[in-house]
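[#protein-structures] MJ: dropping Phospho-sugar mutase here for a structure pass
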Amino acid sequence: MDTVGSDDRAAPSSKNQAPVIPLAGGSAADSTTVLIETARAWLRQDPDPETQVQLRGLINAAGDGDSAALVSLHDRFDTRLEFGTAGLRGEISAGSNRMNRVLVSQAASGLASYLLNHAKPGVTPSVVIGYDGRKNSHIFATDTAAIMSGVGVHAILLPRLLPTPVLAFAVRHLDASAGVMVTASHNPPNDNGYKVYLGGENNGAQIVSPDDKLIAAQILRVAAEELVPKLPRAAYETAEEDVVRAYITATASIAHTPRAQVNTVYTALHGVGWDTTRRVLEQAGFELPTLVDAQVAPDAAFPTVAFPNPEEPGAMDLSYETAREVNAELIIANDPDADRLAVAVPDAGESSGYRRLSGNEVGMILGWRAATLAAQAAGDQPLVGTLACSIVSSPALRAVADAYGLDFADTLTGFKWVSRAPGLIFGYEEALGYLVNPTTVRDKDGISAAVSLLSLVTDLKSEGLTLENHLDQFTEKFGHFASGQISVRVSDLSTIARVMTRLRHTPPEFVGNVAVAQIDDFRWGLGGLPPSDVLRIRLVDGSRVMVRPSGTEPKLKVYLDTHSTTGTVEERKATSIAALAELEQGMRDLIT
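AK: finished. structure tokens for Phospho-sugar mutase:
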């Protein structure tokens, strides 16, 4: 296994022989013939000149005996990009195992069939469709709108490229049966994706089982029975700017009049966040931040970052540079579709002069703020509501819920689960996703999270405090929670399966020098949660380890958490950080 350090997508080596699977009773040559004919059939359906040229070249080369071309065709056609609870996401390229106009057209038709089959008698189902600034996002969105309209679904396209949270908002605001957002969030530049939301009793949340399986079955039926050029198409509606203005008003309303102004830097990481964020901040009364000019406009090439994810090393370097120039007190960053928020604060101990807070740090202080505001609103009445986070996020949020007498829910990873917690008043996951206004948006929202955080920071500044001071206040009240993560990128996904199998069949008795108290396996479901390929290791000192395969990348992910309530704030920090270092080394020894 290789520790993360390269962002290159795992791909078959041209030196390898094609993984030929002979037909029953047939030869490898027969299999190759079938493969090439499958590719030709796909090519005949493809409306995209770019992927046509790409696939035609591979077909011709494979027909001439080019082993590398044959390997590529196998990789593209031996399987299909699976539609699941995260929708679709993958590299833009030709083939059933890639994102392209054929696959998206089949997905649109399949989703339309699902909506028509589940509509109440006499009711026309509707779908609202959004898209970001990535390559082909607008094309995939308009293909979807035309195809869904063609079979009788009322299709509404958002007026222009917009953040994912605006689409999630629009599903509820327009009372749509479903929503589609064309985005790959913070994936590599040549990726795109297709997220599906459901309205009605789902409140505009992302799809979960069994709906994902029902939609996937319809998509496969379309792929088997229909030809993309013959799918009916019709005119669709384009939404007015009213829906965007409604989102802006709803999001600005969660702020109060700032009691101080904060010198802030903002970056959109070449995504679609700035225009909407600017309008929200203006309406809420905040001074506009200094912009990272090179990254503020949408750009599908993402020219200044190797990987457009604020969690990745180097992604925020330009924001640090800008912040040093203006002596900023705070940096806020959205990922390219603005559903995530990254935060950085001044730190003289860092070479950049700034430290990016972890998702857990931001999540626990926003959760604390949500609990405090809920308690203030309740007054003398019983405090009711739920704080929720994914099972791999810090246990800190549970401590907040316990302290305030609120319910707590831990969920599987993904906001499709977090957003569905009953009575939710705040939810988050450690991968920079926060849900601060569940009555408006049932998904993570990097813009409303920025507004909530800025409200907190301006309040703190009016009291002579900083965000770092507030983190120390959290440690003083709840103890210090330290979190870390190990991400191991692999070139062969079977490597991850072998590690998970080894941990299950030969469970460790120690992690480092700390004894294991209990191992929980979520494989068959646990504590009311659906089945998931996750292991939770609890240690006798109260530390916790979560191990799972990534749902979107070829990685094994390990989440580490320690906690200390002993001594001063600084002593609590030192104790938990030392325990975290030992935990990390112990887990690296176990998984490599």
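MJ: nice. Confidence is low (pLDDT under 50) at residues 1-25.
AK: one more thing. Residues 17-77 form one domain.
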